[in-house]
Design brief:
The chain is built from 13 helices and twelve strands. With about 350 residues, the chain is an alpha/beta fold. It has two domains: about 230 residues, P-loop containing nucleotide triphosphate hydrolases (Rossmann fold, 3-Layer(aba) Sandwich), CATH 3.40.50.300; about 90 residues, Hypothetical Protein Yjia, Chain: A,domain 2, CATH 3.30.1220. The strands form two sheets. It has a seven-stranded parallel beta sheet with strand order 3-2-4-1-5-6-7, sandwiched between helices. It has a five-stranded antiparallel beta sheet with strand order 8-12-9-10-11, covered by helices on one side. The longest helix is centred in the C-terminal third of the chain and has 15 residues.
Length: about 350
């Protein structure tokens, strides 16, 4: 019993691309109720957007040195190489952290990650307090797991060799099926009928798992932390599309970085990002951009054709002021065509 109490609890926050994980976590860090937190961010791609957003907010409960970013690929595929050393780094911190939050990439399957907590080198030191899945309420209300899956459905329909569900759907299903709590984000963008449709899309969640509506990532920390579920001891009861398979790989997705010149008009860039989503089936774009004559750094985030951009902070002398965007989509993306659209 004593050994169990001494283990540091970890909350795994999973969810599809652009569902709102980072917004939720930032709100959580700002309202931690005095807990000393650490954060592992699994950024997919070469530009650490999520880690930068969270580091720049200067939250006392989670200082910058307690944020560790994994940028070498999907966390559930690189557990031994990246995740365990990150845990070692955090657990060596003084003062000791009270709770660790793990933000997975949108492509990560939670089950292989949770299974790593059964390893002898890990099990005695940490435990999975709970798995939280963040889902895009607005997309689900429209019958999709992300903002624009029409192109993916057409691609699937045209390929008569496929005998399984769309890979994106499988990732979504696995994340929901493993969750102990589901956050229905962007609740402010849907009406009562839309909320009913979104909740119906989550009917494969395990019995008793609650769905919590949220707008702008605002969820009480007491709902997210301190669940005490020791999920690693129950993980075999959480069914997955990938059960019975060996080491999985995310060969269904491509990711690359596009460098663009400094821009004059953020709205024009947003139009180009939307065009890339509509013309080339891009699922996700995110990055930092320099705007000519502006001392502030522009953060760009897009899910399908839906684009958000704002100035997050001033550039510093230490910053590399190159404008770079991470592009993520299904395997076979036309990188040359997308670069042409984004560069303009």
């Amino acid at each position: 019993m004593t050994a169990s109490l001494s283990r540091v609890p970890c909350t795994v926050v999973t969810g599809f691309l652009g569902a709102g994980k980072t917004t939720l976590i930032r709100n959580l860090l700002e309202n931690a109720g005095g807990k000393r937190l650490a954060l592992i961010v699994n950024e997919f791609g070469d530009v650490g957007v999520d880690g930068e957003i969270l580091r720049s907010c200067g939250i006392e409960s989670c200082p910058e040195e307690n944020i560790v970013e994994l940028a070498n690929g999907c966390i559930c595929c690189t557990v031994a190489d990246d995740f365990v050393p990150a845990l070692d780094q955090i657990l060596a911190r003084t003062p000791k952290v009270d709770h660790i939050i793990i933000e997975t990439s949108g492509l990560a399957l939670p089950k292989p990650l949770v299974q790593a907590f059964q390893w002898p080198t890990v099990k005695g030191r940490v435990t999975v307090d709970g798995v939280v899945a963040v889902v895009d309420g607005a997309a689900l209300a429209d019958g999709k797991v992300a903002s624009d899956l029409d192109a993916l459905a057409a691609q699937r329909a045209a390929d008569d060799t496929l005998d399984h569900d769309d890979p994106v759907e499988e990732v979504f299903d696995d994340q929901v099926a493993c969750a102990d709590l589901i956050i229905l984000s962007k609740n402010d963008l849907i009406d009562a009928d839309g909320a009913a449709r979104a909740n119906a899309a989550l009917d494969h969640a395990r019995p008793g798992v609650k769905v919590v509506p949220s707008a702008n990532g605002k969820v009480d920390a007491s709902l997210l932390l301190g669940l005490g579920l020791a999920v690693e001891d129950d993980i075999e009861n959480r069914k997955s599309h990938h059960d019975g398979m060996g080491d999985h790989e995310h060969d269904d997705f491509d990711s690359f970085v596009v460098e663009i010149p400094a821009i004059a008009n953020p709205d024009e860039l947003a139009k180009r990002v939307t065009a890339a989503a509509e013309e080339e089936n891009v699922l996700r774009v995110k990055g930092f951009v320099e705007v000519g004559g502006k001392p502030m750094r522009l953060l760009v985030q897009a899910v399908g054709p839906r684009v958000n951009h704002y100035y997050d902070r001033a550039w510093t002398a230490e910053d590399d002021r190159r404008s770079r965007l991470v592009v993520i989509g299904l395997k076979g993306l036309n990188q040359q065509a997308i670069e042409k659209i984004l560069v303009g």
